[in-house]
Amino acid sequence: MGFVIVTGMSGAGKSQALKMLEDIGYFCIDNLPIPFITKIAGWMEEDDTVENIALGIDSRSGTSLSILEKELEHLDKKYSNYKILFLDASTEVLVKRFKETRRTHPLSGVGRVDRGIDLERKKIEFLKKRADYIIDTSHLLIRDLKSEMDKIFLEGKQYSNFIITVVSFGFKYGIPVDADLVFDVRFLPNPYYIPELKYKTGNDKDVFDYVMSSKEAGCFLDKLEDMLTFLVPNYIIEGKNQLVIGIGCTGGKHRSVTLARSIAKRLDKLEYGIKLEHRDIEK
User: Fold this and answer.
1) Which of 16, 145, 219, 261 is 20 to 30 Å apart from 248, CA to CA?
2) What are the φ/ψ torsions at residue 29 (nearest 5 degrees)?
3) Matching InterPro entries, A to Z (predicted)?
4) Which of 84, 37, 33, 89 lies closest to 60 in space, CA to CA?
5) Starting at the edge strand that comes first in sequence, how are the strands of the sheet with 52-56 ordered?
6) Domain ranges (residues) in the chain
7) Do residues 108 and 116 lie in contact, with contact meaning Cβ atoms separated by under 8 Å?
8) Statement: the pTM of the whole predicted model exceeds 0.70
C-alpha cells in the first residue's frame, strides 16, 4: 500500500506534485477534510482495489489543522507505513509566484501576501518537522520537480532532503541574488585569451582540460570540497534544506563553468540532491 500525505506551502507546487503522483498510478484527493484521513487509511487496509493513494492537505483546512497532529499520532499507531511529502519554497519566490498568477494567498485575505506566507509557515511548521521528504522548489523547474518525484515514488532511490544548487556566473552580470556562498575563480588562467578557446565554454573538453591543467584549480577544488563536507551536515542540523553555491569568473563561460561542473561532480558522491546551472553561459 502506498499512502502519501502531500502538503506544504501554498504556491510551492503541491498541485503539480499531486498531478505527477496521479500520472504514476496514485489515486489523488486534494483538500481532504482532516477527519477523513484515518477513515481513508482504514478503508485502504480493508479494500485492495486501490493500491496507492495521495491526500493533499494544506492551510485551506483552516481550524481543522489544530486536530491534524492528533490524527497523525493516530495514524502512527495504526497505519505507520504512510509518508509525508512537504513542498517548500522561499518567501521571495512564493511572493513572486502569487504576483505572477494574480492569486490570493489563502491566509492573507485582503492583506499583504508575505504576511499570509509567514502565518502559513507557523501554522504548518509541525508538518515540515514530521515530513519524510522535503522538496524545496525555489529553484526547480517543473521537469526538475518531476525528476525528484520520480526518484522517490517511482524509482525507489535514496532521497536526500538537502538540495545543493551549484551556479556558474559572470561577475560582469552581477552575483546571483539567492547565492548562499560565492567563490571567485578569476585567479585561474583565462581561456578567453586563447584564440582557439575564446568562443567555446567550460562544457567543451578542450576548455575544461585547459582550466583544470592548472594545479591551483585542483587545489581549490580539494579545499572547497573539504569545507562543504564540513558545512553541509551542520547546515542540516540547523534546519537548512538547500544551499546555493555561486562559482564566478569574469564572463561566466569558461572558468566558472569548468569549476562548477567539477565541484558538482565531487559533491554528487555525498548523497545530497545536486543541481547544476550555468546562468550566463549563453551571454
Assistant:
1) 145
2) -130, 120
3) P-loop_NTPase, RapZ-like, RapZ-like_N, RapZ_C
4) 33
5) 27-29, 52-56, 2-8, 83-88, 133-136
6) 2-153, 163-278
7) yes
8) no
Contact 250, 125 (CB under 8 A): no
Binding residues: 8-15, 58-61
Give the separation between CA 212 and CA 169, rounded to whole angstroms: 18
Instruction: Please tell me the distance from the alpha carbon of residue 44 to that of residue 159, in angstroms, as a whole number.
Output: 26
Instruction: Outline where DSSP puts E strands in the chain.
Output: 2-8, 27-29, 52-56, 83-88, 133-136, 163-170, 181-184, 242-249, 273-278
DSSP state of 222: H
Phi, psi of 214 (to 5 degrees): -75, 130
Binding residues for ATP, by number, are 8-15
Convert the pLDDT of each residue in 151-209 to its tens digit.
888 766 555 668 899 999 999 999 998 899 999 999 999 999 999 999 999 999 999 99
Query: Which one-letter amino acid corresponds to residue 231?
Result: L
| Domain 2-153: assigned CATH number | 3.40.50.300
